[in-house]
Design goal:
- The protein is α+β, with helices and mostly antiparallel strands.
- It has a domain at 3-115: Jelly Rolls.
- The chain contains 9 helices and 8 strands.
- It has helices at residues 3-11, 16-23, 81-86, 107-116, 118-144, 147-157, 161-164, 167-173, 178-185; strands spanning 26-32, 37-39, 47-53, 55-62, 65-73, 77-78, 93-96, 100-106.
- The protein has a 4-stranded antiparallel beta sheet with strand order 1-8-3-6.
- A hairpin with a 2-residue loop joins strand 4 (55-62) and strand 5.
- Helix 1 (3-11) crosses helix 2, helix 4 (107-116) crosses helix 5 (118-144) and helix 8 (167-173) packs across helix 9.
- It is globular, with a radius of gyration of 17 Å.
C-alpha cells in the first residue's frame, strides 16, 4: 500500500473503494529543491498535494518580512487552501525548505470525486473544519498567552515540528524573535 493510500485509509478513514477512486486521479508528481516555490502569491491553486517527503513553509510577505503561518511535512496535505477552495489567487507563498517530493490531484478532479462519493465530501468537510479549529486555537494562543506558553502548546500539539523546521521559521510562526524562542526553550 502506498503512503498516500495508507494516509487516506488510516487517517481519513476512507474505504478501499473511495481510496482507489481518489488514487486514480492523484497522479501529478512534483519535485522541489530547497527554495523552490510550490505556490506563489497571486497564483490560483489548481492542485491539492500530498507530501511524500520534505518540508515546506507557508508564509505571507509583510513589509518585506516573511510571516510564517504554517508548515507542511511528510504524510500531510498542502496547498493554498483558500485559493484551492475559492478558485481565487493565493494570498501567500508555499516554499520548500529542502528537497521535497509531492503528489497532486487537480482541483477539478478532486471536486468531481467528492460529488461522486458523498462520504468523501463529508470527510473533506471534517478535515477542513479541524483545520479551521486549529487556526482559531493558534490565533487565541497568539493573542492571549506568553511566549513560553506558545512554545509549550506547540510542543504539546506538534513536537515533531522542532526536529523538522529551523528555529527561525518556528519563531516567526509563534510571532516572536529567534532569540525569544531560544531563551524560552531553556
Amino acid at each position: 500500500m502506498t503512503t498516500l493510500a495508507r494516509y487516506l485509509q488510516e487517517q481519513l478513514q476512507f474505504t478501499a473503494e473511495e481510496t482507489t477512486a481518489l488514487l486514480t486521479h492523484w497522479r501529478k508528481p512534483r519535485s522541489l529543491r530547497r527554495g523552490d516555490f510550490l505556490t506563489r502569491m497571486g497564483q490560483v491553486e489548481q492542485h491539492l498535494y500530498f507530501i511524500l517527503e520534505g518540508t515546506l513553509i507557508i508564509f505571507y510577505e509583510i513589509e518585506e518580512n516573511e510571516q510564517v503561518v504554517g508548515f507542511g511535512y511528510a504524510d500531510t496535505m498542502i496547498c493554498s487552501f483558500p485559493s484551492f477552495i475559492r478558485n481565487l489567487p493565493s494570498d501567500y507563498y508555499i516554499q520548500a525548505l529542502g528537497p521535497t517530493e509531492l503528489l497532486g490531484i487537480a482541483r477539478t478532479d478532486f471536486y468531481r470525486i467528492l460529488e461522486q462519493y458523498p462520504r468523501l465530501e463529508t470527510n473533506w468537510r471534517r478535515m477542513v473544519e479541524e483545520a479551521l479549529l486549529g487556526r482559531i486555537e493558534r490565533e487565541i494562543d497568539l493573542l492571549t498567552v506568553s511566549p513560553r506558553e506558545r512554545i509549550q502548546r506547540l510542543l504539546n500539539r506538534s513536537p515533531h515540528i522542532f526536529q523538522l523546521i529551523p528555529n527561525k521559521y518556528i519563531a516567526s510562526y509563534l510571532r516572536m524573535t529567534p532569540e525569544t524562542l531560544s531563551r524560552n526553550m531553556k
